[in-house]
Amino acid sequence: MNTHNNTLPVLILKKVVHRKKVVLAIIFRFNHGIKEQIKNLIGIIISLVLSSSICSAQEQFLYKQIDTTKLFIEVYYPNHVDSSITYPAMVFFFGGGWIGGERTHFINHAKYFSKRGLVCFLVDYRTESKNNTTPFESLKDANSAIRFIRKNASDFGVDTTKIIASGGSAGGHLAAATALINTYNESTDDLTLSSIPNALVLFNPVIDNGPGGYGYERIGDEYKNFSPLHNIKKGAPPTIIFLGTNDMLIPVETAEYYKKVMEKVESRCDLLLYEGQAHGFFNYKNLEYYKKTVIEADKFLVSLEYLRDEPILKIE
User: What is the DSSP string of 283-314?
Assistant: First the structure.
């Protein structure tokens, strides 16, 4: 009679889907307390669990399809997700003048803030170069993306009272417009779901589309319904704006006026100016100012109690 199976522990690895993440469930079965074998297996188990966690830290979901055009959201989770709680979300919209751009624009921001404890989303939206569309379609997509996140908040582990919209340049416009403008919605959207974020982190954002402002030649008289500056109202979410003083697209005076109007309706608006810096100064390739702006964005979110002081991360 073979008694070998009665003495060795059996290790069972089982894939389990939790919050759309694949993890490994580890189960031991053994008849006798064979401590040494178990001890040797512990290293293997830890390695498997850690590698599984790392591999599933980033996922992609289809959030919208228009005819043959498919739009995706890329998700970055905190390192150690506790299924008993929910996390603030940070939704990034890339820049590119509504003409071009890639959702990977803010990938380094997403990696940093996910490690700090946010569920981060990088969003596709339609652009002129890829889809032959106007800025109005871009805004429709931005609204659809936030509604998708709200609808699936329990799957993503997101706190729907703490959704941050963020973006740079035209992406900054989209983030601000989701908060202030409700005119441009896809006919297939569920309008019972709000597309309004709870806070804004804006990097040299396009905030004025009126005469003399960016994009007016494409927006025309619709600027009254499309321009964030012209639609600031009471209840506007707390906002932080980063801007270089040598930005040739977004005048400092425009940002200062935006701040003034925000404060007039009793909404918080922090404006941080960076002497001598041009449009796009905050991007990762400009590591010095990437670090500076990320640190200040972090402090802003801590002040809103969306983030805690810990963990302190090295920005690199």
Answer: STTSHHHHHHHHHHHHHHHHHTTSS-S-S---
Q: What's the pLDDT score for residue 36?
A: 52
Question: Cα 258–264–266 angle (5° rounding)?
Answer: 105
The answer to whether 150 and 194 are in contact (CB under 8 A) is yes
Pairwise CA distance, residues 53 & 71, whole Å:
26
Mean pLDDT of 275-279: 98
* Chosen CATH of 58-303 out of 3.40.50.720, 3.30.70.980, 3.40.640.10, 3.40.50.1820: 3.40.50.1820
**How much is the pTM?**
0.83
Model confidence pLDDT, tens digit, residues 242-252: 999 999 999 99
β-sheet bridge partners, residue 17:
22
Q: Which residue has the tokens 């399809």?
A: 65
The pLDDT value recorded for residue 315 is: 84
Q: Where are the chain's structural domains?
A: 4-55, 58-303
CA distances from 299 to 101, 190, 259, 294 (A): 28, 34, 19, 9
Residue 16: pLDDT band (50, 70, 90) is very low
Q: How close are the terminal C-alpha atoms of the chain, in Å?
A: 61
Calculate the CA 214 to chain-centre distance. Answer: 24
User: Distance between CA atoms of 249 and 311, rounded to whole angstroms?
Assistant: 36
| 281/225 Cα distance (integer angstroms) | 29
Residues 6+ apart with CB under 8 A from 15: 22, 23, 24, 25
Residue 151: which of 105, 193, 96 has the closest Cα? 193
Output the DSSP codes for 123-172: E----HHHH---HHHHHHHHHHHHHHHHHTHHHHTEEEEEEEEEEETHHH
Q: Mean pLDDT for the chain?
A: 87
Which whole-number Å values give the CA distances from 292 to 11, 195, 214, 253, in the listed order? 48, 29, 26, 22
**Predicted pLDDT of residue 10:** 38
